[in-house]
Amino acid sequence: MSKRIALLSAAVFSALAFTATITAPASAEEKTVMVGGAAMFPSKNIIQNAVNSKDHTTLVAAVKAAGLVATLEGKGPFTVFAPTNTAFGKLPAGTVETLVKPENKGTLTKILTYHVVPGKLAASDLKDGMKLKTAEGEQLSVKLQEGKVWIVDAKGGTSMVTISNVNQSNGVIHVVDTVLMPAS
To answer: How far is CA 135 from CA 23, 157, 173, in A?
Structure first.
């Protein structure tokens, strides 16, 4: 499974990196956050930054397969809870390969848009017990415990925010360690 994901991710990552919108070089004054070995520039959009993170190649491949690149390059603002490759690796064997097939685009889109909340929410905006309505339409819940932010999905699964407040030109990314699942 991991070889397939790596090959698929590498192919899509390369294609997205090649086709990403070209922007002026980021200013040296920009405050960047390192994610997946790459600087995330606040002047770039979610996709322009995500394609550079080696920890998010599976997410980028999934976004491409779901046809959500243009949406996440859009004006926003968006708050994205971005699962790492390791998070996708926690799913049952064969899940990612199945989801990226064209016939499963609807299910993949539902799962990915469940990780997106309209508006820009910094970690300090996320309060214990807060309900977040996702772009998919269902809710996520926020849990604060021992100084950490946890996101609870509709099935009771939890995902810890491992890197918060990765600002983008069209929102903010919070890196999470588990894929969130909608109720249906």
So the answer is: 27, 19, 15
- What is the β-pairing status of strands 148-152 and 158-168? antiparallel
Q: What are phi and psi of 83, to 5 degrees?
A: -70, 140
* Burial class (CB within 10 angstroms; exposed 0-12, middle 13-18, buried 19+) of 165: middle
Q: Give the pLDDT of the chain (184 residues) as one tens digit per residue.
A: 444 444 344 333 333 343 343 344 444 467 888 888 888 889 998 999 999 899 999 999 999 999 999 999 999 999 999 999 999 999 999 999 999 999 999 999 999 999 999 999 999 999 999 999 999 999 999 999 999 999 999 999 999 999 999 999 999 999 999 999 999 8
Q: What is d(CA 184, CA 171) in angstroms, rounded to the nearest whole number?
A: 27
Domains of the chain as residue ranges with CATH: 2-21+32-176 (2.30.180.10)
Query: Strand, helix or coil at 81?
Result: strand
CA proximity to 8, closest of 91, 100, 103: 100
Tokens 């508006």 locate to 119
Q: Residue for token digits 């946890």?
A: 150
